[in-house]
Amino acid sequence: MLPLYLLTNAKGQQVSVELKNGEIVEGELTNVDNWMNLTLSNVSQQDTIGNSGNIAFQKEIVKSQEVYLRGTYIKYIKLQDNVIDQVKQQISNNNGSKDNNSGNFRRGNKFGGRDNFRRGNQNNRGYNNNQSGGGRRPYQNRYENSQRPSSGSGMGGFVQQHRSQRDTNNANVEF
Amino acid sequence: MSTVDIKKPQMGAGGPKKITEGEADLYLDQYNFTTTAAIVGSVDRKIFVLLRDGKMLFGVLRTFDQYANVILEHCVERIYVPESNQYAEETRGLFMVRGENVVMLGEVDIDREDGPLESMERIPFAEASKRRRDGDEARYRHETAKGKQLARYGLLYDFHKSDMY
């Protein structure tokens, strides 16, 4: 599960966004796109003014009904603590019948995370298929041995999709 | 038809010979990832993140992507004031940090983390952040003055107030 995926699933929740200039914008998240542009509703905006030292913590608050925020101006976003659990639940509800493990975020084994990356790389065909040079050993048909990497992974839903796609049309796996 | 039969034609003639699982793992252990994939081993571990504005965040890395956008659970912001051997902490909850603002991040050894803090005094967060802000401003004034000096000799001095780390 990628960070942006989590954010899209936090729609309708209360978030607090700090911008690169230190301003803090709080409101209900109404929409997110691939560039992390946000729209917030019922917004209160605060800015630390009096930066010259003697006035320490004075804040100016502006309230507005709806705000559009460009993604590139975001420093970080504070989300509600229960978002991860909610998304986990959603994922396991969606494909619970197909895969019992899919809601599990934690790595199943020590190498779970790395397996993850391997999957990502395999999707990226043509990236590393220079077979002649270097000490790079090609690595084929890993999944023949039915030794699937554990499905409990940090990336949950997304990776599951990729994997099922790849299993059908990209059986020949190379590094 | 078995699965092997399906795959064979794709391998083509003179395809490279198969290697075992063990060999594959060995190969991957030697591979040094230099992209964001390098932090894949830190997922579900406690990490610290230094931001461009100088903030230090500590939390459990849940997910990340190719931009180093990271999700930190149980996030804590900590300010160190080394001059007076003090520090301050504030709990922040679930945090999503935009990758652009990340300077560096790394795993924290939770057994040894508290060692240095025991010899330091904990002060209120507001006080520490005020001290930090003052320090940043002093630095900003100093660096801009320096930049102006150098400019008089036709020299460039790269400093931007967003780089406070």
UniProtKB/TrEMBL annotation, chain A:
Subcellular location, principal: nucleus
GO biological process: cellular response to glucose starvation; deadenylation-dependent decapping of nuclear-transcribed mRNA; mRNA splicing, via spliceosome; P-body assembly; rRNA processing; tRNA processing
Limits of the Sm domain: 2-83
Keyword RNA-binding included in the entry's annotation: yes
Coiled-coil region: none
Region span, Disordered: 92-175
Segments of skewed composition (Low complexity): 92-106, 119-131
Biased composition (Polar residues): 142-152
Record keywords: mRNA processing, mRNA splicing, Nucleus, Ribonucleoprotein, RNA-binding, Spliceosome
Pfam families attached to this UniProt entry: LSM
Protein name: LSM complex subunit LSM4
Top-level lineage group: Eukaryota
Family of the protein in this entry: Belongs to the snRNP Sm proteins family.
Location in or out of the cell: Nucleus
Function noted in UniProt: Binds specifically to the 3'-terminal U-tract of U6 snRNA.
Classification via SMART domains: Sm
Any single Gene Ontology cellular-component annotation: sno(s)RNA-containing ribonucleoprotein complex
Automatic annotation (TrEMBL), chain B:
GO biological process, one term: mRNA processing
InterPro entries hit by this protein: Lsm1 (IPR034104), LSM_dom_sf (IPR010920), PTHR15588 (IPR044642), Sm (IPR047575), Sm_dom_euk/arc (IPR001163)
GO molecular function annotation: chromatin binding; mRNA binding
Location of this chain's protein in the cell: Cytoplasm; Cytoplasm, P-body
UniProt KW keywords: Cytoplasm, mRNA processing, Ribonucleoprotein, RNA-binding
Source taxon at top rank: Eukaryota
Entry-linked Pfam families: LSM (PF01423)
Boundaries of every Sm domain copy: 34-111
GO cellular component, one term: nucleus
SUPFAM superfamilies noted in UniProt: Sm-like ribonucleoproteins
Subunit and partners: Component of the heptameric LSM1-LSM7 complex that forms a seven-membered ring structure with a donut shape.
Free-text function comment from the UniProt entry: Component of the cytoplasmic LSM1-LSM7 complex which is involved in mRNA degradation.
Family that this chain belongs to: Belongs to the snRNP Sm proteins family.
Name of this protein: U6 snRNA-associated Sm-like protein LSm1
Gene that this polypeptide is encoded by: TDEL0H01120
